[in-house]
Design a protein that fits this description.
Elements: H1 33-36, E1 46-49, E2 53-54, H2 66-79, E3 85-90, E4 93-98, H3 100-109, E5 113-118, H4 123-136, H5 142-155, H6 160-167, H7 171-179, H8 185-193, H9 198-204, H10 210-223, H11 227-240, H12 253-256, H13 260-273, E6 277-281, E7 286-290, H14 295-308
Parallel strand pairs: 2-4, 3-5
Antiparallel strand pairs: 1-5, 3-4, 6-7
Helix pairs in contact: 2-3, 4-5, 5-7, 9-11
């Protein structure tokens, strides 16, 4: 699988006056007071008692692989914590902004203090930095990522354009990610655990019957269905759930002999837009049909088309 491209302009796209590094020195103990008053750049990295730091309440990442944590702890015992944690002051010591995995591994390794940089982030900035840091490291599963993106737009009031600019991802990507949260929780767990992919999840979102969604999800896992096979199965189920819908006229011989390149383009657009696509016509005239099954789905397609023509 190709590695995701790096994120875009980052925090500057979210808040132009991003908080500077806190230059008030807070030594971990009295023995460091003299050193902290020297004012050198090194003093900006503070060694803080690990027990004075608590996890980020806005941390989007919920699952931490115990095996990988222990591997990191083993490395920390040998090499220490190479990259400082980012923290902010709280009423009871410090709160993590970024670096919870390193903090957890440091606790496992038995460290008493950890290197930190203190920043003056407010609650909103704290939450956004935590989301971006995890996405930069690709540490979030698709559902955690969707929850983080939804939090940015709903809880913290960012527009999808602002989120898109800050993360270097298209509005279509962001919309498709958040759509995963429409799935029943049990299916979300399948996606979160890696039993099925986000693409599989998006394929069955538009099936109006939750029980049928679950049935298809179980088939995906049981039979290791590809996304293409899932699309065909989902379309069949949707047709069965719409008996009142007039059957399409029998395809002409020309339709049956549709060129392979047209079929390939239909499939590419289906993957990109997350809905069924039909291209009909000849070299001189034709049409492209996009299916939608709700007002939300129509608005999503409109947004995707607007993004494509910017």
């Amino acid at each position: 699988m190709a590695k995701k491209a790096g994120l875009g302009r980052g925090l500057d796209a979210l808040f132009a006056d991003a908080a500077p590094i806190d230059e008030i020195k807070r030594p971990a103990d009295k023995n460091n007071e003299e050193k902290s008053s020297s004012g050198t750049d090194e003093d900006r990295v503070l060694y803080i008692d690990i027990n004075d730091i608590r996890p980020n309440s806005a941390q989007p990442r919920k699952n931490f692989d115990e095996v990988k944590l222990n591997e990191l702890a083993s490395s920390i015992r040998t090499n220490g914590v190479i990259q400082p944690l980012i923290v902010r002051e709280s009423t009871k010591g410090y709160e993590l902004v970024a670096g919870e995995r390193r903090w957890r591994a440091a606790r496992i390794s038995g460290l008493r203090t950890v290197p930190c940089i203190v920043r003056n982030f407010d609650d909103k900035q704290n939450a956004i930095v935590a989301i971006i840091e995890n996405m930069q490291r690709e540490d979030l599963d698709p559902i955690e990522e969707a929850l983080g993106l939804k939090s940015m737009t709903e809880k913290y009031g960012f527009t999808q354009e602002q989120v898109s600019a800050s993360l270097g991802r298209s509005r279509t990507y962001i919309t498709n990610s958040i759509r995963l949260l429409k799935l029943p929780e049990e299916i979300q767990q399948y996606v979160s655990s890696g039993q099925m992919s986000a693409a599989h999840g998006r394929t069955i979102i538009n099936i109006p019957d939750k029980a049928k969604q679950k049935e298809i999800a179980d088939k995906i896992i049981r039979n290791d269905l590809s996304v293409r096979a899932t699309e065909r199965l989902a379309e069949k189920v949707k047709d069965e759930l719409r008996p009142e819908r007039k059957k399409r006229k029998k395809a002409s011989e020309a339709d049956k002999a549709k060129a392979a390149e047209i079929v390939a383009v239909e499939r590419e657009l289906m993957t990109l837009l997350g809905t069924k696509v039909n291209i009909a016509g000849d070299d001189s005239m034709g049409k492209i049909e996009l299916e939608y099954y709700s007002l939300d789905e129509l608005n999503r397609l409109i947004d995707a088309l607007r993004d494509a023509f910017k």
